[in-house]
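re the bet — no i am not wrong, look at it urself. input seq straight from the record:
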Amino acid sequence: MPNRLADATSPYLLQHAENPVDWWPWGVEAFEEARRRGVPVLLSVGYAACHWCHVMAHESFEDEALAAYANERFVAVKVDREERPDVDAVYMEAVQAATGHGGWPMTVFLTPDKDPFYFGTYFPPEPRHGMPSFRQVLEGVDAAWRDRREEVGEVAARIRADLTERASVYTVGGSALHPPGAADLHQALVVLSREFDARRGGFGGAPKFPPAMVVEFLLRHHARTGSEAALEMAVRTGEAMARGGIHDQLGGGFARYSVDAGWVVPHFEKMLYDNALLLRAYLHLWRATGDGLARRTALSTADFLLRELRTPEGAFASALDADSLDPVSGESAEGAYYAWTPGQLAEVLGEADGALAAGLFEVTEAGTFEHGASVLQLLSDPQDAEAYERVRARLFEARAGRPAPARDDKVVAAWNGLAIAALAETGALLDRPDLVEAAERAADLLLAVHLTPDGRLLRTSRDGRPGANAGVLEDYADTAEGFLALYAVTGGAEWLDLAGGLLDTVLKHFADEASGALYDTADDAEELIRRPQDPTDNATPSGWTAAAGALLGYAAYTGSARHRTAAERALGIVGALASRAPRFVGWGLAVAEALADGPREVAVVGPAGDPATAALHRAALRGTAPGVVVAVGEPGSGGVPLLADRPLVGGAPAAYVCRHFSCEAPTTDPAVLAERLGGTPGA
C-alpha cells in the first residue's frame, strides 16, 4: 500500500512510495506528529541517481520487520536533497562536523524541534567493517531517547549552538573583506599548481571530480595575464577527462566522478549540472586554443543533453542513474550499461572489428571494471578515423538495446540555467542553431512553470507540473546567468530584463545588507535550525559566487552601480579564500578575473540580418576576455543602456569595446574586434 510519498513530484521520493516504512515528506505535519507521539524523527536524505541510496533502500527500507520497528519508534521523513538543498546543507554540515565525512544516503535523528543529535550515512543490514547494522542504530537511538532524554536534549542543544556559531563566520566582519586583486589571483594559481596532477590531469587524488569551475578560472586567468601555466593545466585536465572512462566514449557526456586518480573508472551516474558546466568549459577551451578534441567533446556533450536529458516539455532532466540491469545476470548493477568485455565487442562487431575496437578503447581480458569488463577510453586519436566512426556507431547502436539506466526527470531551475547558458553559447559559436533553440525552449519552460506571478522562482517541476519548493539562491543566480547568455547570443532584450528581475529578488531577499554576504535561502523561506549559506563550490558553483557573476554581468550591460557594488561585496569572501582553498572557489575566482579585467563590454550595432552585423557579433562572442558581455541591436534601439548612443560608422555596422561604459574608438572590422578581445584561436 503506498505511503505518504505517493503524491510527490520527486522521482526519488516516488522510489520509496511503496516502502513498508511509513515515510512522511518534509513538512510541519511530520514534526507535529513526532511531538504528539513523543518520538524522534528519522531523517533520510538522498537522490534518485544515488547508488548507495538504492542499496540501503533495498537492504533496509524494504524489510518488513525493520520497517515495523521504525514505524513504531520514529516518525520517518524522506527528503530529496535536490529538491531541498537547504535541508540537506544544514544537516550535512552537522554530519560532517560530527563524523569527519559526509555522503548520501544521509541518516540523521532529530528531536521534534528539528535539532539533530545522532548522525550517519549508509548503514548496512548487518554489522560490517566496524559499522553497526541499521537495526542496531535504530535500537540504540530509541534506547537513548527513552532512557537518557535529558542527555539527548543537551547534545542537540550543543549541536544547534555550534551550527549557529559556524553560520556567523561569513557575515561577521564580512564588510571589511575585499575582492581578490591581481596578487590574490596569482597566488591562487600558485596553490593550484602545487595541487595539480601533471601526469593525469586534474587536482588531488582519488576520487577525482571534474573541476569545470577551476578550468574556467584558469582560462580566464590565461586570457588576462598570458599565463602559460594556467593554460597548460586547463588543457591537460580537459584532454585527460575527454580521453578517460569518465567521458562516455560512445554517447557523449560525463559521469559524476572517477573513483581512481586517472579518470579510468567512473561513478556512472550522469548529472545535468556536470554536463552543463563541462560543455561550457570545453567550448571555452576550444575558443582559447582551437583544439579539435575540445570542440568534439563540447558537441558530443551538447548532443547527449538533447538526446538523453531533454524532457517532452523542453527543459532538461536532472540525472541518469548509475545502475541498470545487467544484460547477462538480470540483476541491477552499477555501470552495466557502459562496460564491455572483448567477447561482447566481438559479438557485436565480429572478430576483426572487435579486436580493432578493443585496441581503440583499451578493452582487455583483465578489464578495468568488475567481472573482467572494461570502461571505454580513447587515449589517443585513432589513425583510421573512418574505421573508428564505424565501430563507435555500431557499438552505440548495440548498447541502446541494453536495459537503460533510469532517468530522474524532475527539472531543477538552477541546473537548467547552467544548461541554457552552455547550449546558447555552444550553438552560437559552433554554428548549431538547434542548440540555441533548445536553450530558448528550456528558458520558456522556466518562465511558464517555475516563475510565479510575483517574480519568485520555484526550484523544481516534473511533467510541466510545478513543485512546491521555493527556489534557493543558486536557482535565481544560475537562471539569471542563463538568461544573460541568451541575451548575448540572441539580442532579445527580454532576457536581460528577466535576468534583472531575478537579481533584484536576490538583492531584496537573499543579501545581508550589513556585510554583503548572501544566504542560500530567502528571508521569507521556511525557518530551519539555521539559515544556510556557503560561498564555496561543490558540484556546482555556489549560489553566492554564481550570484556575484550574474550581478557583475548585469551591471556591465546596464551601468548599474548597485548591482556592481553588490557583486564586489559578495566577492570579498573569495579574496579571503583565494590562497587558502582555490579549488573550492573556482567560480568565484573566475568572476574575480572578470572584475579585474573590467569586465569588457561590447556593443554591436547594425541592422538585423546584415552579414556585417553578424560577423561583428560572432567575433565578439569568440572573445576570450574574462567575463566579456556582448550586446547587439539595431542603431538607436532602446532599453539596453550599453547600446544607447552607439551610432553606425560611415553607415556600416560597428562594434564598441568599453570598460565602465568608457569606450575605445569603434571598429567595423571583425578582425580588429577579435584582436581587441583575444578571440582568434577558436575562429
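see?? The first helix runs from residue 11 to 15. told u. also Residues 256 and 379 are 20 Å apart (CA to CA). so pay up
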